[in-house]
Amino acid sequence: MNWNLFLTELVAGVSHGAVYALIALGYSMVYGILKLLNFAHGDVYMVGSFIGFGIITVFGGATNLSIPVWALLIVMLLCAMLGGGLLGVMIERFAYRRLRNAPRIAPLITALGVSFFLENAAQLVLGAQYQSYDSFGWKSPIALRHFTLPASTVISYAEVIIIAGTIVLVVALTLFVQRTQLGKAMRATSFDREAAAMMGIDVDNVIVATFFIGSALAGAAGVFNGIEYQQVWPYMGFTAGLYAFIAAVVGGIGNLPGAVLGGLTIGLAQAFSIGYISSTFSDAVVFAILIAVMIVRPSGLLGKAAVSKV
Amino acid sequence: MSTDPTDPSAPRVGVDEWVASHEQRRAYRAGVAGMVERRLERVPSPAFYLAFGIAAAVVPALTSNGYVIDVGLNTLLYMLLALGLNITVGYAGLLDLGYVAFYGFAAYGYAMLASPKFGLHWDTLAVIPLAVLATVILGFLVALPSRRLVGDYLAIVTLFFGELFATVYQNGEHMSFFGHFGAHDVTGGPNGIPNIDQFNVFGARIGALNYTAYYYVALIFFMVLLFAMYLVDRSRTGRAWKSLREDPLAAELMGMPVNRLKLIAFASGAGIAGLAGTIFAAANTAVFASEFDFTSGLLIIVYAMLILGGAGSLGGVILGALVVNVSLEVLRTPGHATWIFYVLIAATLVAKLRPWHALAIVLAGTAAFGFIVHAIVSSAWPRGVHGQAPVGGILGSGLSHWVILPSSPMTIGNVAFIFLVLAVLALTLLKGWWQKLAMIPTLYLAAFVWENRLAVEPSITRLILVGVILIVLMNARPQGLLGTSRVEIV
Known about the structure:
The complex is a heterodimer.
Chain A: H1 3-34, H2 41-58, H3 69-96, H4 105-126, E1 131-132, H5 157-179, H6 181-191, H7 193-198, H8 203-229, E2 231-232, H9 236-251, H10 256-276, H11 282-296
Antiparallel strand pairs in A: 1-2
Helix pairs in contact in A: 1-5, 1-6, 1-8, 1-9, 1-10, 2-3, 2-4, 2-8, 2-9, 3-8, 5-6, 5-8, 6-8, 9-10, 9-11, 10-11
Chain B: H1 16-20, H2 31-42, H3 45-62, H4 66-91, H5 99-113, E1 114-115, E2 120-121, H6 124-143, H7 151-170, E3 175-177, E4 180-184, E5 200-201, E6 204-205, H8 211-234, H9 236-246, H10 248-253, H11 258-284, H12 298-309, H13 314-330, H14 334-352, H15 356-380, H16 393-399, H17 410-429, H18 432-454, H19 458-476
Antiparallel strand pairs in B: 1-2, 3-4, 5-6
Helix pairs in contact in B: 3-8, 4-8, 4-11, 4-12, 4-13, 5-6, 5-7, 5-11, 6-11, 8-9, 9-11, 12-13, 12-19, 15-18, 17-18
């Protein structure tokens, strides 16, 4: 057993999974409330990543950075979350709101159109080529004073930043959903939209808030991905969105802890299959997990079996 | 939720009689137009299909232009694809997002069995049925795990299947399994499979790059399948599919085998895509995996065709594929595209803007606004008007006195594009005269963005257009051009 490879892939898988988990949370929240698969969500993540890239450029890049690196990181995250959230709210307002009571397939096709529009608009405005985040030493292996990692195990600062940042965001989201009034309204709306409306909850506001928070998380995920992999390009949202989707389904769509668990599962499965099998088949492994979950536990790992009422 | 009860298209609550008399209540237009409309409605739809077939058959005889035939062949392949997707999405209401993978699977299947790749040169009469059958079985297998679940899961499984297909075929030049069985080149990887055999029936073969022959092959297949679909549409299975689409629960309670119907719809859609794939492979003599992935836009284009024509309508398949593919081809040349852009905007305004004096005010206002802006910019910032118009001729020289054309339009054009999108969105929120007033700068901004960015990058503009078609149609006219509008019973 090669422990170095194992540990490297484990940390890579967890940090990768954390990014998927953040995107999957947005999918799951929107699905929980509107029963809509928001295909454009992955492209919000792409826009968030580009916003982070823009902030680095605005503050002078790696060569003449005008603020400390930790401050830059915070500004990047805040701007990406704000920008992503506003984009999500706009998508909801202009593309999905009119279709809320339409047949199920209509908003799905609209979501495909929105996703395709965002990808190509980004290609027009930002160019089709890959852009590169400056790295500020984020990718250098981490060095600890009292604890030595096994030789040749590579854990970078970026991975630690991503995992810690994700934990903070997930804890904040949990507190928000469990402890605040708006969070309570969200849970009520996702449980039964009509009954919630009858109880005096402003469902429109709740939906807007859901889109804002979910899309803000996707924007943060975009910045995290930029820190870890450096590259951003207009079509990055499609693949990442797809994995996050599967993560949401594997964990149980509509279930927030499930989205995190699903994200970690998919991230680890991908990392280990790249490390131990072959990168060509990592997609096939993820697909196999999806199919297995859908056959054995259609409601997902943490989802409750749906009781359909007539 | 936000429908106006006086709007005739709004759903009526619980009035069954109103629903039942939906067809009769349609008012015919007065005069000759109404008479023509009524006469046309009596003509059975196969007559229209036949007319289309005859018209399509004489096209190659009228022109010797290879480009027209090439576009025609492409359009027919799109029609076949839309016809197959019409079964899955239009009739059965299943969202199949891996549809293009079936097309690619059969194209690769044909390429592997009839090319120097593995030294196999099978007879076309054997390869086509084999490839189609394999695609049907694949479609069946993909739909199987999600058959019991709601449509959303099917969408995810098929979307990921489509991506998986593209990735595996893209990287299939060193196939190995857990490091065993060597590294075999199965799909040619990014180089695809070249030198595919032409169609070859009992020794008679189609000459290389003879697009006219493939045009007729595709046309014959399409017409046969179109009439078959016409019969299916009215058959027991067709009616069962449509009831499944409208209300799966009610269909199940009526004793319909819902799972079997879904699987049949999915697999037969995949089969038609497979047939189109074999023609595609033979006509193009090479296949590449990147042609079938999501970023190529093929899936979205086929969906746009189906939705534009009207899902569930056979005439809509023909019309949608024709309109979308021809407009995408026209967009390739900026000169034609610019004419179409302005004519289309003017036509939309004339059709939608009432009363007439509002239309006149908006048009005159836009023209005046443009000249004023142009005058201000040319005196304050001369470099702002010295750019090159993307088209020449009367239109180009006329426009260069009206639209601002900066000498370096890249950055300002990109910013303007974002503002244009925001302005159009804001326009949908305004009402009455405010909306008409806001239209004036928005129209000018649209012309500015078109001249400086969109007309310069036709390959991206066409894909943006496809996305916009889907969003706008779904919000404004979900039944498409020829589909029947849905009557909702609450």
